[in-house]
Amino acid sequence: MRIGKSTRQTKETKIELSLNLDGNAHNDIRTGIGFFDHMLNSFATHAGFDLQVHVQGDLDVDGHHTVEDTGIVLGDTFAKAIGTKEGIARYGSFYVPMDEALAFCVLDISGRPFLVFDAPLQAGQIGAYDACLTEEFMRAFAFHAGITLHLRILYGKNTHHMTEGLFKALGHALRLACEETGKGVLSTKGSL
Questions:
Q1: Domains of the chain with bracketed CATH
Q2: What is the DSSP string of 106-149?
Q3: Which of 54, 69, 146, 169 is most buried, by the most CB atoms less than 10 A from its CB?
Q4: Which reaction does it catalyse (predicted)?
Q5: Does the pTM exceed 0.85?
Q6: How many helices (H) and strands (E) does the chain have?
Q7: From CA 27, how far away is CA 161, in angstroms rounded?
């Protein structure tokens, strides 16, 4: 099975995370930010991953360190779980409609981290979650997972719907990219 586990402790956060890419969406997510828990649960459920995340963060400051550091640890753990990238589809893309909003994700498990984030999320709060932290999470995840990640909101008005669409689209696109093909490394170079 493709499983990764990581822990990370700084002066700002303490994170324990485990990820099973071949799971059944059995999730236990506790970050201290309700909406962020909802987003991580949506991501893992739509990816079909088992995700356990326990975070103690400096929420008395704000949610920035908790959200960004969770992205770092999730990316590191994903990289461990996916391993050599041998025998996977490598690419994935998916559209997710959320009522009036339409989100799109395309990615490449390439070992070459990059983020394009074209999502005009309005400043402000969704519960205790700062909407602007979505880009911070996605950047941290992409760079630590070693993936090229493009995210876009084609249209929408409700920040909750747009944000949730992005997390769900990421989950679906990763599920497709992680599918096992049994055909070695999908690269003309022979390695990633």
A1: 3-178 (3.30.230.40)
A2: EEE--S--EEEEE--PPSSEETTEETTHHHHHHHHHHHHHT-EE
A3: 169
A4: D-erythro-1-(imidazol-4-yl)glycerol 3-phosphate = 3-(imidazol-4-yl)-2-oxopropyl phosphate + H2O
A5: yes
A6: 4, 10
A7: 21
